[in-house]
Amino acid sequence: xxxxxxxxxxxxxxxxxxxxxxxxxxxxxxxxxxxxxxxxxxxxxxxxxxxxxxxxxxxxxxxxxxxxxxxxxxxxxxxxxxxxxxxxxxxxxxxxxxxxxxxxxxxxxxxxxxxxxxxxxxxxxxxxxxxxxxxxxxxxxxxxxxxxxxxxxxxxxxxxxxxxxxxxxxxxxxxxxxxxxxxxxxxxxxxxxxxxxxxxxxxxxxxxxxxxxxxxxxxxxxxxxxxxxxxxxxxxxx
Length: 238
Hints:
Strand content: 15-25%
Number of helices: 6
Number of strands: 10
CATH superfamily of the largest domain: Dihydrofolate Reductase, subunit A
Radius of gyration: 18 Å
CATH topology of the largest domain: Dihydrofolate Reductase, subunit A
CATH architecture of the largest domain: 3-Layer(aba) Sandwich
Order of helices and strands: EHEHHEEEHEHEHEEE
Low-confidence stretches: none
Largest sheet: 10 strands, mixed
Helix content: 25-40%
Shape: globular
């Protein structure tokens, strides 16, 4: 558990996986789909998190559009700029890691959660203007790539987020794990064997990654063959 004086939120990686660790649910048997969705959302609410975070690929369907390669190629070469927070009260937020500003957000809202883009300082001023026009807040963290430590500190400072659910793909999940920025792992194990070679897994770091130890906090059968496991990330991984 995070110290009350921590400069970043407590980060919980909350995911659904097959028994062989795959996270792409498309194509799973329809008989488990409803139960998986119901229990995943119930536990999401149970954590009472002030925000959730995903990477660019996961967020693309929510954004509604992507920018053209020419637009993405336009870069800012000046001094660092200020973050932007849409005025008003934001009880819960959806944070999108999008270093190069590929997502052309059509709205600043996802099912009642306020959208916050986390981008690198090289994105163009035109892109930041687009975000402001669409009612999307943004945090500038890093230059070409997102500085995840800085991003989490800003999420805590700008939006008061104490608990953040990480619900991304294997790359963003693995990157935060490798950086020692995940405090807890919440897994709903579905009664599915996937086995599709090349399908994304829970954590994708690289072939030289060192396997790490987790400490079991709880195990709860959920019905319909689902199992909820909660692990604390050992201090040796942080």
